[in-house]
Amino acid sequence: MIIKSLVLASVLALASNIASADQVVVVNQAVTEKEVLSAQQAWCNALIDINAAYEKDGQAAAKALAGKVIDAAYAYQMGTVLFKPTLTVNPQTFRLTRAGALSYFVGGDASFPKDTGFALKGWRKCEAVNAGIFIDGNSAISMGKVHFTDKAGKVTTVDKTWGYIKDDAGNLRINLHHSSLEYQGK
To answer: How many Å apart are CA 100 and CA 162, to the nearest integer?
Structure first.
């Protein structure tokens, strides 16, 4: 009986302190549609910026910028990112490390000899068009098309799925990136 009384007194004291607090702290890490759309646009803008850095100042500048973009946009610092880029082949189809992602975007890594730098292809425009966005608390998945326009005006379209998760600071980060060319048939 004494233990029940002590527990009840503790609960009542805690409830009293909570009820008298001036502000209630609410933590909401839920992803919003606006955050997903902003992340997609930022990714597209970054791709164009990496290419511009390459054309203006060369591969080293593009690589430095791509590294910053990867660190800001992807979740490699949180663990493995499931990244399957568009133009990769076995045995290096999947890029689960930051180094693999960086090589895909800008090339120049002897560990990935077939990478020529997807971000260095002369892209002038990038547009994501979603077929759907699935939001579940602090994570989201988007699927749709991304249209890339090069300096000659040629448009390349890929099917793209991105997964997102919020980091401890509330920043949306890519933890899944799957991209493939559209099926062309026979």
So the answer is: 17
Cα–Cα distance measured from residue 143 to residue 34, given in angstroms and rounded to the nearest whole number: 15
Q: 41: closest CA among 157, 113, 146, 171?
A: 146
Amino acid in the structure at residue 143: M
Provide the token pair at 51: 């290419």
The predicted model scores a pTM of: 0.84
Per-residue pLDDT for the chain (186 aa), expressed as one digit of tens each?
566 565 555 656 666 555 555 788 887 889 999 999 999 999 999 999 999 999 999 999 999 999 999 999 999 999 999 999 998 888 899 999 999 999 999 999 999 999 999 999 999 999 999 999 999 999 999 999 999 999 999 999 999 999 999 998 999 999 999 999 988 887
